[in-house]
Amino acid sequence: MKEKLRKNLDEIIWNIEQARVTINEHHIVKVVAVGKYSNEESIKTLYELGQRAFGENQVQQLQQRMQNLEELPLEWHMIGHLQSNKVNKLIELRPALLQSLDSIKLAKLLNKKLEEKNQKLSCLLQINSANEESKSGVSADEAIDIYQEIKELCPQIRLKGVMCIGAHTKNIKEIQKSFELTHKIYDVLKKDGATICSMGMSNDYELAIKCGSNLVRIGSKIFN
Ligand SMILES: *Cc1c(COP(=O)(O)O)cnc(C)c1O
Hints:
Helix content is 45%, strand content 17%. By secondary structure, the chain is of the alpha/beta class. The protein has a single domain (2-73, 87-223), classed as TIM Barrel (Alpha-Beta Barrel), CATH 3.20.20.10. β2, α3 and β3 form a beta-alpha-beta unit. The longest helix is centred in the first third of the chain and has 19 residues, at 2-20. The termini are close together. It binds pyridoxal-5'-phosphate (PLP). Pyridoxal-5'-phosphate is lined by residues 34, 36, 57, 79-80, 165, 201-203, 217-221.
């Protein structure tokens, strides 16, 4: 198993290297390994291979893995939709980053609960830039206003940038359009302190990086 994971990781790092230099030599890309198709054993092995940041899309799973792998210095990201009844639990877990802050309503609820516990939480605003009904996230049209509104109204939330999931299609031009739109919004938000543009998954991370992504979330291509 270790050799297969090593091979997968090496291949991804190589591909990222090719893609990132098309932006410029100083463009650094962070890899978050998404564990939803894997087990704790594989995560541990990946850690031994040098991987540090891991993402989960369910609070329950995130909690279990954070507990069971507590002895390892891992950085945990929540990347899936956060239900309001899971907010307290997530705050207790203190993840490094909530990538899926997807509405002003959730932001206000989070802020209230964080305030009660005197805690802060780093978050990305999720943008539904492909405008797909099945996906959560704020609309691209409103993203900049909502970002600034959250910054103003929710002092317990540290907004670090934006996240999107590429358009769900085989049409590369469509996927590219959704990444370019998200990156354009990110560019505008840099003046408000945005430093993270999270886009790209197993099937589209190279394209996402060429569109300016500096954080990719990769699951199946690493673990399968
Ligand atoms: C599952 C998931 C990923 C990783 O998906 P792969 O296609 O397996 O790389 C990335 N981001 C989110 C939000 C996910 O839910």
